[in-house]
Design goal:
The protein has 358 residues and is of the alpha/beta class. Helices cover 39% and strands 20% of the residues. The chain has a 6-stranded mixed β-sheet. A 5-stranded mixed β-sheet has the order 10-9-8-13-14, with helices on both faces.
């Protein structure tokens, strides 16, 4: 069987590339040309890819990606001019997939997708990446730096283009500190403390809890049976932000979240030649003139979180350039596919984080 692998020669600018973003809420597919100036068309598959005892279900992913890609290809306009030596019309020269759980549950994808995609779409080049890697590629590109991807959970990823460094992303039971579920749970805890009359309670957050969920004593029965508990917890995070301007307990939750987020960023940010030094408060300070990008829905909470986060990052990464990420994980997948197509993939290959079949 012929497997997809890195293209043997750079592709023509008018050849096709595909990016795929597979997450917990569904799957998105983008079709573009090798040239980054060309148009991009996208489609959404609302059903998340199944995960079973053997990991991410490769067949289920193919059932969604292949028809979506063919539909996008059928609607794609022909290029105005054909570059000599370009791939035949409709041929996909490179495809990159970013998937949640790829690092730990992607064994079947790595084993089955190269041959299947080569057969179904004629793909010459394939990259299979953890969703944190496509988040990095979308937010930073192929430059050294770090990205903090925050939503329901939270993960930080950094690279000096030689290797990857990861911090957190361990789920709501073991980590994801400072993420949406973490903030929401802390806010609900403060609300329940107010309901009980315990120290650390927030009447403002209790009022929000009642408005969102109903009577406080009924919340455990609503929450604990849910399979999507992290998402339910995260849904309360905006309520914490809404209270933070006038409620010190809510503001304190966001300050603590900011400390966790900044510590994750500092743990993965590439260090400069001068190495690390200790801050005045005893915490590690990484003196890195590096780029730190923030991406994901968590940071749309705005100034109640961003103000304390900027302060914490200034303490831990005083020389870093902190900014909002350029693009999302789907943009990152498309960037990986384009880089693979032209033989310019500079982000570090890794057996589970960024896998490129030979």
């Amino acid at each position: 069987m012929t497997h997809a692998s890195a293209p043997s020669a750079p592709a023509a600018p008018d050849a096709f590339v595909i990016g795929v973003d597979s997450g917990g809420s569904g799957l998105r597919v983008a079709l573009g040309r090798v040239s980054p100036d060309g148009p991009v068309s996208t489609t959404v598959c609302a059903e998340p890819v199944r995960t079973g005892p053997g990991g991410i279900d490769a067949a289920h992913l193919l059932e969604q990606v292949v028809p979506a890609a063919r539909a996008l290809l059928s609607r794609a306009p022909a290029p105005a001019t054909r570059t000599p030596g370009a791939a035949a019309s409709g041929q996909v020269v490179a495809l990159a997939i970013g998937a949640a759980g790829m690092a730990t549950l992607g064994g079947r994808l790595r084993a089955e997708l190269p041959g299947a995609l080569a057969h179904a779409l004629g793909v010459r080049g394939l990259a299979l990446a953890a969703d944190a890697v496509t988040a990095y590629a979308g937010a930073v590109g192929q430059r050294p730096g770090a990205v903090v991807a925050g939503g329901t959970g939270l993960i930080a990823l950094g690279t000096d283009l030689g290797s990857w460094r990861r911090a957190d992303g361990w789920g709501h039971l073991l980590g994801d500190s400072g993420g949406g579920a973490w903030i929401g749970r802390a806010g609900l805890d403060a609300a329940m403390r107010a309901h009980d009359g315990r120290r650390g309670g927030s009447p403002a957050l209790l009022a929000r809890l009642v408005s969102v969920f109903g009577p406080a004593e009924e919340v455990p029965g609503l929450l604990y049976p849910r399979a999507d508990r992290p998402a339910v917890l995260a849904s309360f995070a905006p309520e914490v932000a809404a209270c933070a301007g006038a409620d010190e307990v809510a503001a304190g939750i966001l300050r603590e979240a900011a400390r966790h987020i900044a510590e994750a960023a500092a743990a993965v940010c590439p260090a400069d030649a001068g190495g690390d030094r200790d801050g005045a408060d005893g915490r590690d300070v990484r003196a890195a003139d590096a780029e730190v990008a923030l991406t994901g829905g968590l940071f749309r909470m705005g100034e109640p979180l961003l103000v304390p986060l900027r302060a914490e990052l200034a303490l831990l990464l005083p020389e870093a350039r902190v900014r909002t990420g350029e693009g999302d994980p789907l943009t990152g997948a498309l960037r990986l596919a384009r880089a693979l197509a032209v033989g310019d993939l500079r982000l570090p290959r890794h057996p589970t984080m960024l896998f490129v079949p030979e």
